[in-house]
Amino acid sequence: MVRTWFSCLLWSVTVGLQATGSNENILIRQAKESDYVAITDIYAYYVCESISTFELVPPSVEEISRRMESGKAQGLPCFVCETTAGAIVGYAYVRLHNTRAAYDCTVDLGIYLRHGEGETAWTGKGLGRRLLGELFTFLRAVQLPRSHESGRSGQRFLQVMALRSRFHEPDGEYESAPRGFYTSVGFRYVGTCTKVGYKFGRWADVDYYQIGLDEVRD
Ligand SMILES: CC(C)(COP(=O)(O)OP(=O)(O)OC[C@H]1O[C@@H](n2cnc3c(N)ncnc32)[C@H](O)[C@@H]1OP(=O)(O)O)[C@@H](O)C(=O)NCCC(=O)NCCS
C-alpha cells in the first residue's frame, strides 16, 4: 500500500517535465540499467490512472529491473526516448506473446510515453512512430542460428501483437492507445476479447492488432 502510494506520488511530481514542440532532438536508443527508475516512473502513471495496462499496483524499480533484464537475456529489446537534457520520456519493448515454445516467433508490444498535458505532452509528436521504427529494425535483424531447436531458420521474430484496451460500455472514456495509432503505424485489427479485464470497478475489452515484421516498411 505504501509502495503503491509512493509510486503514484513519484509520477505526479515529475509530470511537469517540459515537452518540446518537435521530436527532432530526442535520441532513441536501447535502454540501460540507469533508465529503469524513469521507466518505472512513466509506467506508474498508466497503472494508477489508465487501462493501458491491466496491472493494478505499480511495480517497484526492482521488479521493472528484473523484467527488463529478463527480456534482455531472451534477446528482447527495449528502446527509450532521451531528451538532450538526459530525461527519459518514453519507452517501447517487446515480450514473448506466450511462453509455450511454438510461440517463440511472436512478441507483444508495450509502448509508453511520459504522461503530460498541453505543453508538457509528449504524445502526438511522432515519438511513438520513431520508437517503433527502431524496435522493428532491431527485431528484423535478429537471425536464428541454423541449429535452432525450433527447426526454423532465418528471421527469429516474425509477428508483433499490440493490445488496446477500452471499457466495455461504449462511452469511449479511458481508452488506452489512441484509436488510430496502431493502424497508422501498420498494424491491422484482428479481433476483440470482451470483458477480459476488470479495473476501476468496470469491465474492459481488449482489441488485438498484429503486424508481420516482413510487412514493415522502412
Ligand atoms: C500510444 C502512444 C505511444 C502513441 O505515441 P505518439 O508519439 O503519440 O504517436 P505518434 O505521434 O508517433 O503517432 C503515430 C501515428 O499514430 C496516429 N495517431 C496518434 N495519435 C492519434 C490520435 N489521437 N488519433 C488518431 N490517430 C493518432 C497518427 O496518425 C500518427 O500517424 P502520422 O505520423 O501518419 O500522423 C502514446 O499515445 C502513449 O504513450 N499512450 C499511452 C500509453 C499507452 O496506451 N500505450 C499503449 C499500450 S502498451
Provide an overview of this structure:
The chain is α+β, with helices and mostly antiparallel strands. The chain has one domain (2-215): Gcn5-related N-acetyltransferase (GNAT) (Aminopeptidase), CATH 3.40.630.30. The chain is built from five helices and nine strands. It has helices at 2-14, 36-49, 61-73, 127-141, 181-184; strands at 27-30, 78-82, 88-96, 106-113, 143-144, 154-155, 159-167, 188-199, 202-212. A seven-stranded mixed β-sheet has the order 1-2-3-4-7-9-8, with helices on both faces. The chain has a two-stranded antiparallel ribbon with strand order 5-6. A hairpin with a 2-residue loop joins strand 8 and strand 9 (202-212). Helix 1 (2-14) crosses helix 2. The radius of gyration is 17 Å and the shape is globular. 29% of the residues are buried. Mean pLDDT is 88; it is low at 1-17. The structure holds coenzyme A. Coenzyme A (COA) binds next to strand 4, helix 4 and helix 5.
Topology:
Elements: H1 2-14, E1 27-30, H2 36-49, H3 61-73, E2 78-82, E3 88-96, E4 106-113, H4 127-141, E5 143-144, E6 154-155, E7 159-167, H5 181-184, E8 188-199, E9 202-212
Parallel strand pairs: 4-7
Antiparallel strand pairs: 1-2, 2-3, 3-4, 5-6, 7-9, 8-9
Helix pairs in contact: 1-2, 2-3
Bound molecules: coenzyme A.
Coenzyme A (COA) binds at residues 46, 52, 110-113, 123-129, 176-181, 184-185.
Output the CATH class name. Alpha Beta
Structural class: alpha+beta
List SSEs in N-to-C order.
HEHHEEEHEEEHEE
Bound molecules: coenzyme A
